[in-house]
Design goal:
Blueprint: E1 16-21, H1 27-39, E2 42-47, H2 67-76, E3 81-83, H3 87-90, H4 110-113, H5 117-132, E4 136-140, H6 144-156, E5 162-166, H7 186-204, H8 210-222, E6 227-235, E7 249-259, E8 262-272, E9 277-278
Helix pairs in contact: 5-6, 7-8
Length: 287
């Protein structure tokens, strides 16, 4: 049995843009769609809650499902096609015997806390790239490690597509938009703001170098004991290795923490060293 396709044939030289989602769409997704809409002839949105990227201790059934509202958002943004397959369409033979391996870059940071997560992500992204027939795929910078791995997959496996990154969209209070924010109580949400505040503090110190960035960000997190920090790292954007204290250039300050029962991630790209400061988004090195 073959998986169904949801391809749009572009006009000669036209671009088919694809925004991949797991549903529970919000303004961050809308921004991805609008950016794609501005640049492409046709826009496809995929809505697929991918079981492969959920670990045994992660509750797939708890993930928010808002399909009717998702379709309404897509209509408002002028989406040409919504592809919303069920698992038996994407994985017609059940759990796939062959998967895309994220390799060493998938074993650190998020991968260390969620083993196998990125193998599941890359497998479904590869399949949806084929099934949609898109020529450009739009992803948010908030999931920076995921974005890096998708770029590497496209480059290393010679996918004939472009990967486009879009800056993180934030609430007015600075919280990075995420479907998981719906899990936060009002009190949890106040605690969660320490993530974006820590990143902002670190980015403000970028011109002073790595030590200043780490010190400024850590001070904000230490002041909020209800945020259980998994990691706070300042790494090179393409290797995810900690940058040394003498380093100048592009870097990524990334944080993950559990607030209440919800695990949140966020990051800020920046330029370290004299004249440095926050960056909006990395330019997509390698793809």
């Amino acid at each position: 049995m073959k998986a169904a396709r949801a391809a749009i044939e572009p006009a000669a030289g036209g671009e088919v843009a694809v925004v991949m989602t797991m549903g529970a769409l919000h303004e961050g997704h809308a921004t991805l769609i609008r950016t794609a809409r501005e640049r492409a002839e046709q826009v496809i949105v995929t809505i697929f809650l991918n079981p492969l990227q959920f670990g045994p201790k992660e509750d797939l059934s708890r993930y928010p499902r808002t399909f009717d509202a998702d379709l309404a958002l897509c209509r408002r943004q002028g989406v040409d096609l919504v592809f919303a397959p069920t698992p038996d369409v994407v994985y017609p033979d059940g759990d796939p015997g062959v998967r895309v391996s994220a390799g060493p870059l998938g074993d650190v940071l998020e991968g260390a806390s969620r083993p196998g997560h990125f193998d599941g992500v890359l497998t479904v992204v590869a399949k949806l790239m084929h099934l949609t027939g898109g020529t450009a795929f739009y992803f948010g910078q908030k999931d920076a490690q995921q974005l890096l791995l998708i770029r590497r997959m496209v480059r290393d496996l010679d996918f004939p597509v472009r990967v486009v990154s879009v800056p993180t969209v934030r609430e007015d209070d600075g919280l990075a938009m995420s479907s998981r924010n719906t899990y936060l109580s009002e009190a949890d949400r106040e605690v969660a703001l320490c993530l974006s505040r820590a990143l902002a503090a670190g980015a403000a110190a970028a011109a002073e170098g790595p030590s200043a960035v780490r010190r400024a960000a850590r001070a904000v997190l230490v002041a909020e004991p209800l945020a259980l920090v998994d990691y706070l790292v300042l790494v090179h954007p393409t290797t995810l290795k900690d940058v040394p204290e003498w380093y100048s250039g592009e870097a990524l300050l990334a944080v993950a923490a559990k607030v209440g029962t919800t695990r949140l991630i966020d990051n800020r790209p920046m330029l370290l060293g004299p004249g440095g400061g926050p960056l909006e988004v990395f330019d997509g090195t390698g793809a």
